[in-house]
Predict the structure.
Amino acid sequence: MAEKKFIIGNEALGRAARAAGARAFYGYPITPTSEIAHFWAKEACSEAGKKDNLVFLQAEDEIGAGFMLVGGVLAGTRSFTATAGPGHILMQDAFSMAEAMRFPVVAYIMQRGGPSTSTVIYSQQEVNLAVFGGNGNGYRIVYSPATLQELYDYGIKVFNIAWKYRFPTFLLGDGYLAKMMGEVEIYAPEERGIKMEPTEAYLLEKNRTRPLAEVMPSPEIAQRIAEDGVQYDCFRNCLNLEEETLAVNMEIKAAFDAAAKDIVEFQEYGAPEAATLIVAHGIVSEAAKAAIDALGGKSARLFRPITLRPFPVEELRRAAKGAERIIVAESADNMLARFVKDALCGYISRPVEEYFRPSIGILPSEIAALVGK
Amino acid sequence: MNENIMDQAVKSAFPKCVRVDSKPHIFCPGCGHPEVLKALGFAIDDLGLQSKVAFGVDIGCSLLAWDFFNLDTIETHHGRTIPTMVGFKRANPAGVAIAYVGDGGGYAIGLSHVINAAIRNENILVIVVNNAVYAMTGGQEAPTTLQGMKVKTAPCGADQYHINAPEIIRNVNPTAFVARSITTIQFGLRKMLKDALQHQLDGKGFAFVEVLSQCPLNWKTLDKPQETFDFLEKTLAKAYPVKKY
Ligand SMILES: Cc1ncc(C[n+]2csc(CCOP(=O)(O)OP(=O)(O)O)c2C)c(N)n1
Ligand code: SF4
């Protein structure tokens, strides 16, 4: 039965993974995410956790954790990690492999200050890394939740999206949300009519329901039925020729583009006729909503991408039509704004106004002041 | 000598679990990798593990083994095969996890994974093929390169020290299966790999086998087999004793 709990964001995430039927956590401690690992470690050694065969493994570093996560996915287990900042950087090695082979790894990333070690507190500066962190084209799915409740809701959803579409899927929160306490409604997915997407092993799966070619680029797969009548599957991550590599990239792109239409999510807030359009994501979009309310709800409206990747390009273009001013506010320098300008290039006549505050929170009063300018 | 292994060796030149249509293999002529793989294939056959093994290969010449066997196989990323197989085994304890890596993958870029997997006594088998160089990338210095060896990144001769991994593993894990073998003693190698796999099947934890192996291409002995095997058996095996630890 659904119940309201007064908890911190990290616990909401731990509970979300549990509710989603995740079985394995591989990670390395880093503030501001460590309570996710603490939650799972405790859960794994509880009676219920043992019954469910939960896996908790503290790796030697985030490179190890990332590849263990790949291993968990290869075993067909809903597996996840949690990280931030420098740990997020190290995990790109494994995320890149997951992108290449379309492995549905899931990570809760709670952004901290950057660059480098910086502060353990807050920023929105891991957007580029989450979206484009590999040596590929950013075929990843990135959600930006804005509230504690959304940590829980999207904390469940990322597993379904990852396993349905078979792309690395990230929940990109921030340190404020991770450490904030508040009321969260905890529910089982089925209570809300959410059906969990089935998982399937890549290795040692002898009764496949989804053909591998549907979930992986075909040049990476070699399947044979051996003398013993059993099919054996071999996967490769190293290609020989440019043509093969092109084929792999085009297959990934085609799958990503087809999925993007279903996946893309956004939110609008405020009166549709309001002249000023604020574009913000994550916790800053909550500040923007408060500013819009404080201004009486008529002078400004919000466009909030919930998926930063795929980005709601068409939807933003539609929202931008008729706006006299467009303000992008983010706790980073030109990360969200770059996506916005890219989407609106050729569609608007005035430049977007930039409010960039790397590594620091943005208050409703600051946004209200921008609108009033 | 295990009789079963002897029987099989006499009956067949190839292990049953070898994928015939990916042969001839694409390692260089005279390379040690196929020798190690063949011994591993026989060990797997002997234990009846073909449908239970998850075989992970690294980036390095081991990547060429991605379709060597009729075994479920994943070619991973340079140095990262061990954590991948650790994650797999934790999530699927019924599978038999094998990580097959080079000495660069195992002792340089992936060293912390090897040591920490040993410290945690992960129930996997790690095979490190020690050919004393980075072979795939054209013969650079590895942590196993012996003093004075002239390699691409040490043209005046490699420096003084090299890694003796089994000793380190034994030091951090008193109960692990730890051994060093060599391609030229095929029966011994098969037996070693079989025992190492049995260690995993018995749930005893970390098993580690380093195999001394020849790289005629980068040793520049492609047309001089005698020199290849002299270096392997006399020089390498002297610095790296072949034994169970
Ligand atoms: C992260 C990363 N760094 C470097 C490389 C380039 N690289 C490919 S194989 C290799 C070394 C292989 O040597 P070893 O592991 O000893 O295996 P061998 O080829 O000798 O069997 C290197 C450095 C890479 N693929 N990935
Ligand atoms: S380069 Fe050396 S290790 Fe690699 S295939 Fe050739 S002989 Fe074998």
In short: The beta strands of chain B are 53-57, 72-75, 96-102, 125-130, 133-134, 140-141, 177-182, 207-212, 243-244. The longest strand of chain B covers residues 96-102. The interface with chain A takes residues 16-17, 19, 21-22, 50-52, 54, 59, 63, 66-67, 69-77, 80, 83-92, 95, 112-113, 115-116 of chain B (CB under 8 Å).
